[in-house]
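>> received
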Amino acid sequence: MNAETPVRRWRVTVPDAQQPEWFSGWQFKFLMAAFLMYALRDALTGSLRFYLGKVGLSPIWFVPDLMAFVIFGLFVNQMILRNRSLPATLFVANVFVSMGIGIVFMRMSPAIATTAAKAIVPLFVGMAFSGRTPTEHWFPRAFLYVLVVISCIGILLSPHVAFPWIGAEIDTFGVKKVVGKLWWAEGAVRHGGFAGDSTMAAFMTFFPFLLIFRYLPKWLNIATMALIYSALALTTSKTAIGLFWMFAIFYAIFYIFPVKQRFEVLSRAALASYVFVLAPAILIIAFGGVDLTEISRSLFSLGDRINRSWQMPFVHLNNLFPAGILLGCGVGCFSYPMGYSPLASYAVPVDNFYLTTYLFLGFPFVLFMIAQILSVRRVKEEGKLLVIVAINIYTITVACYGPSFATIIVGYTFSDLFLRNHEHWTRRFKRDQSTSAAPRPTPAERETTGVLQGA
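>> returned
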């Protein structure tokens, strides 16, 4: 059985010597539990909220959020207090200051402030995977694969089944909320399946697959990709469909016909993909004031973002809080938490992760982004590099706040930034390598190493 055998590739785990000291043991298991619970929750949002409400168990919905706040505490303890990570320290300080600005600017009540904190705390769940990956063991891979299949089935059933959660309202702590919305685009229904929302459903069919495809045999990948595309077509999510075709071409070139320089290509692609962070500014300069529907009606949503969604927040800040253009207007502003505040009438769906986060955190986030770009060379996990490329393209038109699993995946792309100050881990890893260098590795060990590096 060689290193490319699917069974060996699926069951391979990361050796203990390659796992950092932080977030190990029970802490990593707790982190993984929260990660998988968020994935389950977002894949089944509509159905889960509907049936939990029916049986009076709606509070269970918030269990992953409570776990995320615990993980935030662990993150502060491990990354800041113990490992003295400068990027982690500055980012956490930036978030706390922005929470204060948001409370003042949006005149948030304690309940709304908690909602704002709940929006950003999943970032720390993703960031906690510093030097690690959520697919180190076979169980999360199997769990995520099952979720992908279930998500696809839900979307494929949508045109033929009247799901009871579409348009249904639930009452949680006295607040009524629609759990499943029916969206239309160019006269066609945007099906949301079990998630109840087409954008969330599209994300949960494609991105979990990105995390695990390297552990699957080629025939299963091709079959699953056909299933995913069939589902994405029904969501009519242009960003997800475009990203899928980019991935399909990349997979055909670099995985069906393996290329030895694949890691180097991915590393350069991940670094180059940060040019998409500038997409809003470039598109506004190039097409601001232009009616893109004269070119194609399918460009209406992009034109709306260029002429309204990406510009109006700064117009409102200039009128209401000019300092916010530089300092940010606080966590939750111009995102869904703002819709519950006294400034709800000014809320604009920004639909871009980096622009939304800049509005949250202000200019310090720009410095954090520069540090993140410089840290890409520290990423040694091939799958994470691919996710970085995909996220930087996907977030051009999606804010990734709201569906918490999307926020986690974005945080995961930043996670290796916090390795830069971990000299102790580097020394430990080298020591482990040197102590184990004397015995010659067995053929099975050599196969495992090969899988980890490029399967």
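>> The chain has 22 helices and four strands.
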